[in-house]
Fold this protein.
Amino acid sequence: MSSEPALAVLASGSGSILEALLGERLPVAFVLTDRPCRALEIAAAHGIEAVLVERTSFGPGFDRAGYTDQVLAALADRGVGTVAMAGFMTVFGPAMFAALPGRVLNTHPSLLPAFPGAHAVRDALAYGVKVTGCTVHVATVEVDHGPILAQEPVRVFPDDTEATLHERIKAVERVLYPSVLREFLS
Ligand code: GRF
């Protein structure tokens, strides 16, 4: 058993990026989600501890600081030293970045600083760009604005829908994120 600080992956969706990290044998020790989602099943199938900290239980006005504190407690309990957000759809309060400065990473489906936010693929299509892509960056309190670690371009095809374009971007993310994380951890 390693005494290295553990790597946690945070997800909200289909978990295909998590699956890619596991496929590339990244040492994922803990998975946390903010809603019931397939990422929990993927963790279970790999024998990795997973917890659901459901954002809907933090009130209609969303208690962001309270949510952040609960996630931080779960991470601290498992000795987590690096967090990889992989499609995690809840924005943390400042306490997250104070507790793990420079140790929270994110993958985003656009070439930042273009198209930050939750609808990056839709926004890129609507703008009419011919090339978009993905960005792996250090997450900071300002959403999608942290230091960029790596980027890859993806061509936009004339008949692309949000779904087809996002799937091509995710195929690139599934290669880029594991390699950046591996280097980050080494
Ligand atoms: C990725 O495109 C990620 O950049 C975005 O959400 C997607 C996650 O995909 N924030 P999945 O749930 O891992 O399939």
